[in-house]
């Protein structure tokens, strides 16, 4: 007789910009057998609010544990900030729940302008490498996976994800008011999150920050066992 896997806990996961469920594959291998990751695609939408509304329709009505990486971390934070009664615990990975810095906004506008004129050509090797920590860049499989996820999602997803989420309000005050228990995980070589942003994030009283070495922005791929060990602790 086949034994049925007993699922006692579900984690609803949102990926980052131009990432799919493969982002979590190594993390999943290290989770407790009774824990199930439920992948939620980043919705196609014309605005941040529309994305959140679509996410709301795919989540259960009862409070859930949410995990979000990068853009998904911001979306999960936004959902939690304005729907705290629907979130029992929030895990934010590689995101500060704050507005994008001017330098990042300029790069995104430039990228969208390029795509509108010449079409989407995927993630360049150098860009993929820049998302990883120094040690991880030597693992060509990680670089290739970043590029592959972006290739599968394509131009429509790229334009939607960048244009709809360009203007992000800072969520620090709202997350504090939510009283939802929050854990934030950040790689110490993440070039997209500054120490100033980390300090501001630490102002959320109901939030604990965990830093990991030898890790850039792609934390679920670079430090999957470390991240899973924290996700396994439900308190």
From TrEMBL:
<protein>
    <submittedName>
        <fullName>Pimeloyl-ACP methyl ester carboxylesterase</fullName>
    </submittedName>
</protein>
<dbReference type="Pfam" id="PF00561">
    <property type="entry name" value="Abhydrolase_1"/>
</dbReference>
<dbReference type="InterPro" id="IPR029058">
    <property type="entry name" value="AB_hydrolase_fold"/>
</dbReference>
<dbReference type="InterPro" id="IPR000073">
    <property type="entry name" value="AB_hydrolase_1"/>
</dbReference>
<feature type="domain" description="AB hydrolase-1">
    <location>
        <begin position="47"/>
        <end position="116"/>
    </location>
</feature>
């Amino acid at each position: 007789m086949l034994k049925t896997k007993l699922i006692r806990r579900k984690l609803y996961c949102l990926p980052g910009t131009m990432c799919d469920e493969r982002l979590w594959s190594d993390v999943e291998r290290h989770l407790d057998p009774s824990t199930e990751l439920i992948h939620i695609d980043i919705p196609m939408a014309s605005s941040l609010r529309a994305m959140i509304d679509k996410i709301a329709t795919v989540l259960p009505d009862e409070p859930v544990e949410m995990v979000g990486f990068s853009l998904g971390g911001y979306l999960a934070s936004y959902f939690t900030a304005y729907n705290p009664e629907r979130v029992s615990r929030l895990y934010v990975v590689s995101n500060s729940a704050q507005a994008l810095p001017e330098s990042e906004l300029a790069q995104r506008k430039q990228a969208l302008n390029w795509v509108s004129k010449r079409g989407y050509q995927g993630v360049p090797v150098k860009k993929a490498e820049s998302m990883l920590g120094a040690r991880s860049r030597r693992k060509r499989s990680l670089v290739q996976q970043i590029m592959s996820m972006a290739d599968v999602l394509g131009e429509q997803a790229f334009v939607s994800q960048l244009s709809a989420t360009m203007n992000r309000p800072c969520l620090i005050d709202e997350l504090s008011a939510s009283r939802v228990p929050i854990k934030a995980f950040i790689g110490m070589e993440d070039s997209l999150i500054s120490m100033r942003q980390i300090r501001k994030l630490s102002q959320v009283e109901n939030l604990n920050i965990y830093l990991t070495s030898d890790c850039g922005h792609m934390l679920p791929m670079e430090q999957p066992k470390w991240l899973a060990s924290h996700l396994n602790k439900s308190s």
